[in-house]
Design brief:
The structure holds two protein chains of two kinds. By secondary structure, chain A is an all-alpha fold. Chain A has one domain: Up-down Bundle (Cytochrome C Oxidase, Chain A), CATH 1.20.210.10. Chain A is built from 18 helices and two strands. In chain A, β1 and β2 form a beta hairpin. The radius of gyration of chain A is 26 Å and the shape is globular. Chain B has a five-stranded mixed beta sheet. A five-stranded mixed beta sheet of chain B has the order 4-15-14-6-7. Chain B has a five-stranded antiparallel beta sheet with strand order 9-13-12-11-10. The structure holds protoporphyrin IX containing FE and copper (II) ion. Protoporphyrin IX containing FE binds next to α11, α13, α14, α15 and α16 of chain A.
């Protein structure tokens, strides 16, 4: 279908429903669905963050317990000093935030799963992508509005299923967000002295992820078709904003990777409940007996399937942020994106190469050490497009005229965090060096920096940048800036310190410190810094919440194009009408997406739908 | 104002991070294996290179932010890119990243790909929730066969040792690992339940234990201990007599050496090197006292072995210990423990 025919077709079927249930709840309008995804992500982010503050408090406590226990062993049992220290330990162990080991792992698993799936995968794509992809390419809606609705409500079901895992007998699953079998596959192996056998929690976890995969697949198809088929007249591929390119590549990644995770999850469910042996090898000795009903499974098979998804997944989380960062740096530096084509190729390079490096999560897993060499070299190669993007971001602000409004602050923060986080990758990508760092806090620092925080800065940037478009009101600038500085400082301290702890060899996923090297003064000091900074940073998020609520209620009225940006969402009203553009008439595109400071032009920016004459003939040819 | 704050914050970030790494002393835990030296070299080289990249990129960002801050009347340049620059930095990073990576492949090959050393000390490492079991081949140097069907908790036979295999008659198993220095060792790492991870920081060794797999890793310990602290008194005469003087006990306690007031002592080289084992019955922590340049130094020769792959609620306490012995002591250790 040509884009014109598609547009005409869409106009006829596209009418706002009058019943509020269809309009605002079970809506097929991509804008409503985008907001729904965004709210889901926001709620999840606060739940996930709350859990992390809780276990950070617990960990700090355990550091003190470990040090006091050391002191205890030097004292005579029953002496006054001994009793005093003993009392202190007991007090710490009964603090409200103290966790039993199994509970700790449950909360940790839920934290990781909620944030990776419900936040990092939903907001950048389902949230911003849903709302703005159709508008930026000049369409009335997504290609398949009903599928779009299905994909949100499946995601919501997945969220509810995951939350239910908190409340079932046996408690939350405790195999980590990576859910490696046999621990996740053999209920008896999760059996423990604290909560009874690991049960429904793990089942719900798998189920939730399977539903999530299905939802993502449906969503991905929608994004791909919309990008390819529904672009308005004049919107050639090479005139798409980099945000659209990013969503497009992300959708392809999601399509190819979630399909695999779906299968991996279903097989795990079968192993758990129907006695199959995809992942469970024979002759396991768990809970003091030999498991005779499993034979021939491979724990490594799951790891391969999981990371075949998992590595692309980390790009699913970050690539939309990369697209947005490029978009904002250009817009607020009032300069074209440096190397637009290189940026497009780099995104594709990351997308393609990203499928060949999953084994770098498995260097020490027992997989073939020959394969590890290949994965290692490929991993370093995929670092190249990431570096290219960074160079181009710096190139974009070079020679600019930077406006320091909050979206730009978050975008600049994104670049800085991306650099810091990427550097950890250069260590971990080398199989030999990874021998030392694998499964330490160094890895935790690396991926939080880059996938956690950088991606979340992308979301903050998207929120302040597009809030005026979605609500018609500006967010409060001083509040946004205060939030930016607190968060930027806080996360840097937290996650760089974690790199240092990794350098000291601190293992991941420990609920207490039974080791001498973990109760050293250095480690406990680092734990203290991390926990205190985490509390500070988490508290700073209240600024963001207040800002949202306050701006929604009393924000300054936004015009159609408050940032003087060029892409099509700024060509319509704030908020856009149901049909996205006035009377459903699609704009025609005549210009590239980043025509800022064009020599001899009347204004310092030319919008994509401005008439061809807006660009003086004397100006250099666009990229 | 904002660009200035930005510059200051990034400056703080760079200085703070570099200081955090530079001032961390020691940078890494003590190193006791031969292959570990190459890993450390590679790690430190990567640290220098990436440290430079980090500083240049962040400071460059700060510079650009300040230099190109908005000023009235200034117009941004209409610069759309530079193909030459794109090629330059693409090739440069490719060469740098891949080159760096290839430099590290030698030590990987040594550990994983090359032929295993001839006639090493073999030790079987069995991981289970939540402990480590080490089986030694005894004097014959051969481990007895194993199979899951022989697992018998009542007899403590978790590794599944075949009672009918004569090779296993002199095998013995312990909950901590002792290795000789200077002689190649091959550990055979396995698990009987879920995934575990074998890791000793000081050995720069890490390998998952996977049920159904058995992974062999060679290593050679090349140090007999890690300097703990110099002793202030001269206890040589007492030590030679096999006596632990009270003053030394106080000194150990003052340095937070946690032990239950039980120690064994012998002279490995009378007048020069003594083996001091604290808590010989329970935790068995071996130290060395060495006379060096007229001073006595205390060396620790035990290292903590941690589980590094999530294995259930007891993951954090799945602790064991590696004791480093002299070849002579190791021979005695085998002799003493063989049934
Ligand atoms: C310069 C490019 C990068 C390289 C070379 C790299 C390399 C690695 C390697 C080798 C690991 C595994 C370490 C281990 O478990 O021992 C790892 C972990 C991880 N990386 Fe990266 N990475 C890069 C960029 C990224 C990006 C852009 C993201 C996400 C946006 C990311 C997210 C993660 C995550 C989530 C993990 C940990 C997963 C887990 O074990 O739970 N990385 N990285
Ligand atoms: Cu990866």
């Amino acid at each position: 279908m040509s884009s014109e025919a598609a547009a005409e077709h869409a106009v006829h079927v596209h009418q706002a429903p009058t019943n509020p249930i269809w309009r605002y709840v079970f809506s097929t309008d991509h804008k409503v669905i985008g907001i729904q995804y965004w709210i889901l992500a926001l709620v999840s982010a606060f739940v996930g963050m709350g859990l992390s503050v809780w276990f950070r408090l617990h960990l700090l406590n355990q550091g003190h317990v470990a040090q006091l226990t050391d002191q205890l062993s030097l004292l005579v049992e029953g002496s006054a000093d001994y009793n005093a220290i003993k009392a202190k330990i007991d007090a710490l162990q009964t603090a409200w935030y103290h966790m039993e080991p199994s509970q700790y792992l449950g909360i940790l698993t839920m934290h990781g799963t909620i944030l990776v799936f419900m936040v990092l995968t939903t907001a950048p794509m389902g949230g911003f992508g849903n709302y703005f992809l159709p508008i930026q390419v000049g369409a009335l809606d997504m290609a398949f509005p009903r599928l779009n609705m299905l994909s949100f409500w499946l995601t919501f079901l997945s969220f509810v299923t995951l939350m239910a895992a908190f409340f079932v007998p046996g408690g939350s699953p405790n195999a980590g967000w990576t859910g490696y079998p046999p621990l996740s596959a053999v209920p008896d192996s999760q059996g423990n002295g604290y909560q009874g056998p690991g049960g429904w929690g793990q089942d719900l976890w798998v189920l939730s992820i399977a539903i999530f995969c299905f939802a993502s697949l449906v969503g991905a198809i929608n994004f791909i078709v919309t990008t390819l088929d529904l672009r308005t007249k004049g919107m050639t591929l090479m005139r798409m904003p980099l945000t659209c390119w990013a969503w497009f590549v992300t959708a392809i990644l999601a399509l190819l990777s979630f399909a695999v995770l779906l299968v991996a999850g279903l097989l795990l469910l079968l192993d758990r409940n129907l006695g199959t042996s995809f992942y469970v090898p024979g002759d396991l000795f768990v809970s003091n007996k030999l498991l005779v009903d499993h034979k021939g499974g491979s724990p490594l098979l799951f790891q391969h399937l999981f990371w075949f998804f998992g590595h692309p997944e980390v790009y699913i989380a970050i690539v939309p942020g990369m697209g947005l960062a490029s978009h904002l740096l250009s817009s607020f530096a009032r300069k074209p994106v440096f190397g637009y084509r290189a940026m497009v190729y780099a995104i594709f390079g990351i997308g393609v190469l990203g499928f060949f490096v999953w084994g770098h999560h498995m260097f020490q897993s027992g997989m073939s050490p020959y394969v590890a060499v290949a994965f290692s070299v490929m991993t370093m190669v995929v670092g190249v497009p990431s570096a290219i993007k960074t160079f181009n971001w710096l190139g974009t602000i070079w020679g600019g005229n930077i406006r320091f409004q909050s979206p730009m602050l978050y975008a600049l923060g994104f670049v800085s965090l991306f650099v810091t986080g990427g550097i950890g990758g250069i260590f971990l990508g080398q199989n030999a060096v990874d021998i030392y760092f694998h499964d330490t806090y160094f890895v935790v620092g690396h991926f939080h920096m880059i996938m956690g925080v950088a991606a979340i800065f992308g979301m903050f940037a998207g929120t302040v940048y597009w809030f005026p478009k979605v609500t018609g009101k500006m967010m409060n600038e001083p509040l946004s800036q205060a939030h930016f500085w607190c968060t930027f400082l806080g996360v840097n301290v937290i996650f760089i310190v974690m790199h240092l702890m990794g350098l000291e060899g601190h293992p991941r996923r420990y609920s207490g410190f039974a080791f001498e090297f973990l109760s050293s003064d250095y480690m406990v000091r680092m734990h203290t810094i991390v926990t205190h900074t985490a509390i500070f940073t988490a508290s700073a998020q209240v600024l963001f919440l207040i800002n949202l609520v306050y701006s929604l209620a009393a924000g300054k009225k936004a015009g159609d194009n408050p940032w003087e940006s060029t892409s099509l969402e700024w060509a319509t009203t704030s908020p856009p009408p149901f049909e996205n553009f006035k009377d459903g008439v699609l704009p025609e595109v005549h210009h590239g997406p980043y025509e800022y400071s064009v020599p001899d032009a009347a204004k310092d920016y030319i919008m994509q739908h401005d008439p061809p004459e807006a660009r003086p003939a004397t100006a250099p040819a666009p990229h | 104002m904002t660009p200035v704050i930005f510059v200051l914050v990034i400056l703080g970030l760079v200085v703070g991070t570099v200081a955090g790494f530079a001032l961390k002393a020691p940078l890494l835990p003590d190193l006791i294996t031969e292959h570990g030296r190459i890993i450390d070299q590679q790690l430190v080289l990567t640290l220098y290179i990436t440290g430079a990249i980090f500083a240049i990129a962040q400071l460059g960002l700060a510079y650009l932010i300040y230099k190109h801050r908005h000023r009235d009347g200034v117009k941004a340049s209409y610069l759309q890119g530079s193909t030459k620059l794109e090629y330059t930095w693409t090739v440069a990073t490719l060469v740098l990243f891949v080159g760096l990576n290839l430099m590290g492949q030698g030590v990987w090959a040594q550990m994983h790909l090359n032929e295993k050393p001839a006639r090493p000390v073999n030790i079987e490492v069995t991981a289970m929730q939540f402990k480590w079991i080490f089986r030694y081949p005894g004097k014959d140097g051969n481990l007895g066969a194993r199979a899951a069907e022989y697992i018998n908790p009542a007899e403590g036979n978790y590794v599944g040792k075949d009672p009918d295999d004569a090779n296993g008659d002199d095998d013995f198993q312990l909950l901590s690992m002792s290795v000789p220095y200077g002689i190649p060792v091959v550990v055979d790492i396995r698990s009987i339940d879920v995934l575990h991870g074998f890791a000793v920081r000081e050995m720069r060794l890490k390998q998952d234990a996977v049920p159904g797999l058995s992974v062999n890793i060679p290593f050679t310990v090349e140090k007999d201990g890690t300097l703990e602290f110099p002793l202030s008194g001269n206890y040589a005469a007492d030590l030679d007599k096999g006596e632990l003087p009270d003053a030394l006990k106080h000194e150990l306690n003052a340095n937070k050496l946690v032990w239950k007031d039980k120690a064994s002592l012998r002279a490995l080289e009378p007048g020069r090197v003594w083996r001091l084992t604290l808590d010989p019955d329970s935790i068995n922590r071996p130290y060395l006292v060495k006379l060096e340049n007229g001073r006595l130094n205390l060396y620790r020769s035990w290292y903590e072995l941690a589980c590094m792959e999530l294995c259930g609620y007891g993951h954090y306490q799945m602790r064991s210990q590696v004791n480093v012995l002299s070849p002579v002591e190791y021979a005695e250790f085998v002799e003493k423990n063989s049934p």
